[in-house]
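Give me the fold.
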Amino acid sequence: MIVVGGEALIDLVPLAEPPGALLPRPGGGPYNTALALGRLGAPVAFCSRVSADGFGEVLLAGLRAAGVDLALVQRGPEPTTLAVPSLGPDGSAVYGFYVEGTADRLFALPPALPPGARALALGTCSLVLEPGASAYEALLRRESGRGLLTLLDPNIRPALIADPAGYRARFLERLPYVSVLKLSEEDAHWLGGRVGDWLAAGPSAVVLTRGAAGLTVWTADGAEHSAAARPVTVADTIGAGDTVNAALLHRLAGAADPGAVDWPDVLAYAAHAAALTCTRAGCEPPYAAELGLSR
């Protein structure tokens, strides 16, 4: 089983008509990653704190429909976090957030993950907003120590980071507990580091998403591989990076020999899945059958 930890929120997606209208859609990087894993047919559990309000019910219904295990979800009376993405001409999104007193930031460290857990993924707002950020970090350290494959996606949202220097320092402190670091070019630029330094700190692989230029991975043994992006008509890029997370985890956690990763195949699979997500408004990850695969 793959465990995905982090926030579930509502994206208020702008509509072309009528002007100023917003469409509520389930979202949040970790939520999208769990949803995508479920649709790809991976055994997956979501680990978060979700509001008991109407939005929270919608969020959990979406995960249930994708076959995601919800046993690790904590519930609370606090409201659901809201995110308002502004879309650029190329479909890219910049986010504003309403996070004060919301349920997901009050996540508490669970006593144990299921015995069958093989991988843990964390990212986005859950790495920033306290007190939940410290609980997720404790989860990362504990499960890394137990030998789980760990994936970290910083998915930087500058509007949420009050202390950029402190966040960058904390990011480096997490790397010894990370197996795979996945980030976008924008994330890498904001963090200001170098791939070689990140690899030296602990991860066995760093995967960089480069939009229309595809994906590249650098590994601790000095290898570098890339995959081209698939040409598609882009509706928007919401959830594309989260779909990459899911595709990476699905292939890596399911590998018969974790020490012998076919990175060109893994990256091509991730690029295909992300491309399909980009053809749809909001985060609508593909199902296994759409990738020509059985569940």
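The helical segments are 29-40, 54-65, 132-145, 164-174, 185-191, 195-201, 240-253, 263-278.
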